[in-house]
Write a structure and sequence with these properties.
CATH topology of one domain: Heat Shock Protein 90
Order of helices and strands: HHEEEEEEEHHHEHEEHEEHEE
Strand content: 15-25%
CATH superfamily of one domain: Histidine kinase-like ATPase, C-terminal domain
Structural class: alpha+beta
Number of helices: 8
Largest sheet: 5 strands, antiparallel
CATH architecture of one domain: 2-Layer Sandwich
Distance between the termini: 34 Å
Number of strands: 14
């Protein structure tokens, strides 16, 4: 799940990639700087020990009594403070009859302790390094040198607490990791801001696409970076091409309708001639011509709707279309004095689609209600689950529940005595389904039929 989220999110991928490199860089930098500082402190520590060892070597003499002596003690005050952490010691190398070296001189800082250095045989003047246990069990870093004066072979040692070296290193590393941690937080914030700012044009592009989808505009508008502008131009070109396809489809369907209706009219007139009205062939031709006309009208409506339903940028206000259709129906059915009631739409809802298709669907519903209503028709626009819903109620005789699905079929009429083709509800149902909506017939509270049309809201 997390991997899929990371793979599908450009923002998370950019942030994750940046953070991985930030963490790796900080860890490598922290380890590398820590090692460099440790090596530097260690070198300085050894240099200081060697300076003390050189001073001790320079002051070493053998007196007339054949004893090793120090002419002038080293000047570092720590060498005179008991257990200060800095020590020196001079051993006489073991002779053939002795088992081990014997300490002959040592610093006051050792008090009554002696340094036990691992047995080895350095050549004259050679410096060896050791890590030994000193007073109070504290680890010491030791430098030793063997010096031969006359017949005396002496081992000179200088030692210091390792904490004098490791303490500053540990303190430095603590400050270093704290500083790198703060740097990492700063870099993380900078990476986040970079991703937010860098992807901001994509959000603007998404908003522009949303406005096209809602029908507020027919193309993507706005100022975009040069890297994104070619994509915006291509998308606008696709929108323009789709609009051109729709216009061309409408023109072609109009031409087809004209091309078909003229021969059909000729056939109908020929079949309706006075000398052929009683002819069985004439009646058959007239019947088939009427059927073909219905089929042509039905499929032309479907073709026109299919050409426009997927075109983005369509948005049609619903209430003005309803008001216009009501005015037309009032004139068409003026002799019946029908009362058309359009309930107010406080939300000013809109349809996400072609105005012509909305007029076709609502016109069929209002015209159907006008044919069957006794005196009153109510039209209501509302929002349901984020979709547009138009409800048309009439006070006519209604339709039995068993027949409601039947009247949605092409060419089926509830009453053959009422003028019509039987295609209105079928066309409306097909158009609604093309737009992802539906058409539902139910019993009206006015006593007649209630038709509910659900469409995508704009």
């Amino acid at each position: 799940m997390k991997f899929d989220l990371l793979r599908n999110s450009l923002r998370l991928r950019l942030l994750a990639g940046t953070l991985v490199w930030v963490v790796i860089s900080i860890l490598v930098a922290g380890w590398g700087l820590g090692q460099l500082f440790h090596q530097h402190v260690e070198a300085q520590f050894d240099t200081e020990l060697k300076n003390h060892l050189d001073q001790l070597t320079a002051q070493l003499i053998v007196d007339e009594q054949n004893r090793a002596q120090i002419r002038s003690l080293p000047s570092d005050p720590r060498l005179n403070k008991p257990l200060s952490g800095l020590y020196w010691q001079i051993d006489r190398m073991a002779t053939a009859g002795e088992r081990s070296a014997r300490a002959v001189l040592r610093s006051r800082s050792l008090w009554d302790e002696t340094l036990a250095v691992p047995a080895d045989t350095p050549t004259d003047g050679e410096i060896h390094r050791h890590r030994i246990e000193g007073p109070q069990g504290i680890a010491l870093r030791t430098l030793e040198r063997t010096v031969t004066i006359d017949t005396h072979s002496l081992r000179l040692m200088v030692a210091a607490n390792e904490s004098l070296m490791t303490g500053p290193v540990a303190e430095f590393k603590g400050h270093l990791w704290l500083a790198l941690g703060l740097l990492g937080i700063g870099l993380t914030f900078a990476a986040f801001m970079q991703v937010v700012v860098g992807l901001a044009p994509l959000r603007s592009m998404r908003d522009a696409l949303g406005r096209v989808r809602l029908g507020d505009t027919r193309k993507m508008e706005g100022t975009f970076p040069s890297e994104i502008m070619p994509l915006v131009n291509e998308f606008n070109a696709v929108l323009a091409q789709n609009a051109e396809v729709v216009a061309r489809s409408r023109t072609q369907t109009g031409n087809l309708a004209h091309a078909l209706k003229t021969p059909l009219s000729v056939l109908a007139n020929a079949a309706d001639a006075p000398d052929r009205r009683d002819d069985d062939l004439a009646r058959l031709v007239a019947s088939q011509v009427d059927t073909v006309r219905k089929q042509v009208d039905y499929h032309l409506h479907r073709a026109q709707a299919a050409a426009s339903v997927e075109v983005p940028g369509m948005r049609t206000a619903v209430e003005p279309v309803i008001q216009g259709l009501v005015r037309v129906m009032q004139r068409v059915h003026a002799d019946r004095q029908l009362d058309f009631v359009v309930l107010p739409d406080p939300l000013n809802l809109a349809f996400r689609g072609e105005e012509q298709d909305l007029q076709e669907m609502l016109g069929n519903l209002i015209d159907n209600a006008s044919k069957w209503a006794r005196s009153r028709i109510e039209i209501r626009v509302s929002s349901q689950s984020g979709k547009l819903r138009v409800t048309v109620d009439d006070d006519g005789k209604g339709i039995d529940q068993s027949e409601r699905n039947v009247v949605l079929r092409r060419g089926v009429r509830a009453d053959e005595q009422v003028p019509g083709t039987g295609l209105g509800l079928a066309i409306t149902d097909d158009l609604a389904r093309m737009y992802g909506g539906d058409l539902v017939l139910a019993q009206s509270r006015l006593g007649g039929l209630q038709v509910s049309l659900t469409l995508p809201a704009g």
